[in-house]
Structure formats: structure tokens, C-alpha cells
Amino acid sequence: MDTPRVGIPEQLADRMTMAEQHEYLRARFARPLTRRGMLRAGAVTAGAAAGTGLLAGPARAYPGPAPSPGPSPASSPELLVSSAAAAVDGKHVAPFGRHLAFGADPRTQMRISWQVPFAVRRPYVRVGLAPWDLGLKLEAEVRTLHTPPLSKKLPAVDQVYLHAALDNLRPGRTYYYGVGHDGYDPADPRHFSGIGTFRTAPERPEKGGKAEKFTFTAFGDQGVSYQALANDQLILGQNPAFHLHAGDICYADDSGAGKPTDVYDARVWDQFLAQTESVAASVPWMVTTGNHDMEAWYSPNGYGGQSARWALPGNGFDPARAPGVYSFVYGNTGVVALDANDISYEITANTGYSGGAQTAWLDRRLGELRRTRGLDFIVVFFHHCAFSTTKAHASDGAVREAWLPLFEKHGVDLVINGHNHIYERTDALRGTRVGRKVPIGGTADSTRDGIVYVTAGGAGKSLYDFPAPDSYEGHVKDLESVDSYFWEKGRVKHPEQVEWSRVRYTGFSFLAVESEPAARGGRPRLRVTALAENGARVDHFDVVRPARRD
């Protein structure tokens, strides 16, 4: 069973929810909060220096509630770090692992996150319209994690994560930024190599902007590996406006198989963020939660670590409980991130934790997006597959039961999953049946033919097997059907013979999606391409909708 069970005997882990795993680990490994030499992590009240012409309004950091806060330091021993580290002179501490994320409005909001190896004094971010003029200075919020040695093979780990929220930015502008702290000023010429950039989303046409084409990329199941790094560099070459990560982010819990020898190595997060920085320091890295991202030590819901490491939009049904559930609009495309751990029939450690709140929110949010003026497409991404045929995980029947009716009700155009470590793409589906065959290079009208579902889980972890031959661009082997299965309630595998498995590729890969607004008299179009780690194209197809009349 593919669930995180760090330090828990196998016979117990098979029956434990995330909350029960958390309680077990705390009872076994937690140390008293009163021990000397500990530094509580707290949100730093943000301030701003004047920055002429940078923002559309007054500079602010975290107005109102901080986005996706982690557990309270007062009640969580993991949110502590040794005060001995604070004695290190800041000039000897260099930031690393920078990663960007949009706020709920990509036109005006950007979140900048990074890491330091030791606690530092007064961390901050500088922002400006030129690399030599970083006139805006904002203090950062500190979120720290303490992980005890959950195995005799591992040391205790203290991690310090820093976050700054930029609001009131101007749409369609390129900004420069640097992160620092007392003793390390990014504006110092010695540190110019650490200056990064980001670009806000353009203003939408209905607000006076111009419709623009843009590209985004997507994959799931990345981890730390040569293949993961290779994919990152190819992604950077697509010049994406943002990147979607469909969960199973770094695999700090690598096996997830419930074996007694399982260990949770928090240091893998340091490796992952260092690996990803070359892209995520300039491309917003929008993640959601997979089964390997449920980390029982930090919080009862398994997402305390996620909340500490990422600053994602806080507009989901409950950002504290579900940091990987949110939405945003970029140009003519709405994007919705979901947490399928909440409904999965296959992996049940967190099944039902929202009590139906996530699905109710999804219904409301999809309806709001479909009614939004100027919006052509809705893209939904999450971890567990609605449709896949691999021998490892195949399809999750809970996703089909709970969410497919909502996708069809509100006219979702494209669904992207991970979980299965391959590339697989369906025809256009109405429910679970083929509405229209979509061969490589084909086109689907999502309003007439149905929804195309893509599994893009070849980001870097070891690959899975199909029960049928690969069939991809240049190597097409069309089959009438493929024997597979889907998970039913009670972790039962229900055999099925499917006709919708149109493209299968056993290799490392990612998606590049170009969103093209309608030309005069034309139709808006998503041009979807799957690229292998060597840059070869393995699939491409288009999704179109009728031209809007608003």
C-alpha cells in the first residue's frame, strides 16, 4: 500500500489514518517543548520601504491572513530550530532553493520563497524594475521545521523556510528580486549572481488588456534524479508562464510501501529545492499534493511540511488543512488544483479528511470560472489518475465517481494527473466512454466531444509498465482495447477493458501547453505537446472551444 508510514510497524501502518500515524510518531519521537536552546518560529510582521513606480498601490506583504500557514509553533515541536544556528554570522549564510508561486491573482500577486541552512536575522526580499535598482524591501515570514531522527541511520534535521508575499504588482511587468538577511544583501555587487526575475500575468482583455498567447508546462512524480534535472532544463527552454506539478514532489518518503525499514529523510527536500531552483526561481512552480507528500510527522493532516515549504494561493476550501487545493486565472485560462488524497479508493490514509468540503468547493469554483468573462479554458490538475492503464496504480474509481460529473457539468477542457510514472493520454471522453477518437495530431472540441485526460507522471522517478505496447508519435500501435482495472471502495481492483488509451509512452517526459486566444472569427485553442527528456515529441493534440460571445 503506497502510503507514508515513516517509523511505523507495517502491521500497524496498514490500518492507520494520517492522524493516527501522526499521533503514533509524536508519542514515540517527540521531545519536550521546554528543552533549552530552542527558538520559536513566528511570522515576521512585514514592512515595506518606498518603491517608486513598482506597484499599482501601496506595497504590502501578507495583508490579512498569511497564505497557507503551517501549524502553530506553540503546539508543534517540529516548528522549532536550534538557537545555536542563530549565532552564525549572516555573511557566511547564503540563501538557496528559491521558488516562486502566484497568489490568487497572478496579475498582481507573487510569492517568493527560499531556504537558508541556518537561522538568520531579519530575512527580507528586495524588488525592483531593474537589477541595479532593487528599491522595494519587504521583510520575510519565517517557517521552520524540526525533524527528529526517525531512523538510526538519520540525524535530526532543522530546516528554515522564508516567504515574502508581493501584492499590488502591475500586470504584465517584469520584476527583479533578490533575497537576503542581516549580513547578506542581494544588492551588494558581490551577490548579483543571485538576482532573479519574474513576470506577472498580463491584464485580461475585459479589463483593457490584450489577448496574448502563453505556454505553461506540467508533470508529476519528480523526485531528485538526473532525469528530473534534465526535465527541468527542457522546461526552462519552453519559456513557460508557470509550471504545474501534479504531486509526489520530492519523495522524502521514497518507498511509501509500508515496509518496516521505511525512513523519512527530510534532507531530500533540500536537494529537491536546490535542483529545482534553476527553473522555479523565475517560473512560478504551482504544486499540489500526492500520496508521497503526506508526511505524518509534521501534522495530523500530513501537510504541515507542505505548508512550511510552499506559499500557494489561499483561496481553496481551507488553506490550512489543504494547501494543495486552490485556483487561479492566467490570461484566458482558469487553473484548479485538487488534492485527490481526500477521495482516493486506492490510498486511504487521508480519504474523507475534508468531509466533502473539497468537492463542494470544486463545484462552486468551476461554476464561477465558467461564468467568468474572458475565460476560454479550464484546466484541472491533481495526483491520482482518473484514467490510466499501468500495472502499478491504473485508475482511481473515486475520482471518476466524485469529480468527473463536475468536470462535465462545468465544461472542463483538460485534466492533468501524475501518480503513474509514464505518459498516457485518452481520447475525448464523455463520462468513461469515448466521445471522439483523438489520434496524435488530432483535435477535440471539449464542448462537443468530451474531455481529454493526460497522465504526465514521467518527471523523474523510476518508470512503470503498461499491460499493452507503447504507442506514441512515430511508433503508433493502435489497439481496439487494453485490459486494465480501476480501484473500487474497499481497495478492490475492478477489471475493465478500455478503448480510451490512445497514447502510451514509457519514458521520462513532460507537457507543454500553449493557450491561444481566438483570432477574429476563430476559435480559442490549447495546443498540447508531450516532450521526452531528450526533447523528442511523443504526442501532440489540440483542444478547442467555440468562440466566446461576451
TrEMBL record:
PROSITE patterns: TAT. It comes from the Bacteria. Residues 95-200 form the Purple acid phosphatase N-terminal domain. One of its GO terms (molecular function) is metal ion binding. Coiled coil: none annotated. InterPro entries: Calcineurin-like_PHP, Metallo-depent_PP-like, PAPs-like, PAPs_N, Purple_acid_Pase-like_N, TAT_signal. This is Phosphoesterase. It comes from Streptosporangium nondiastaticum.
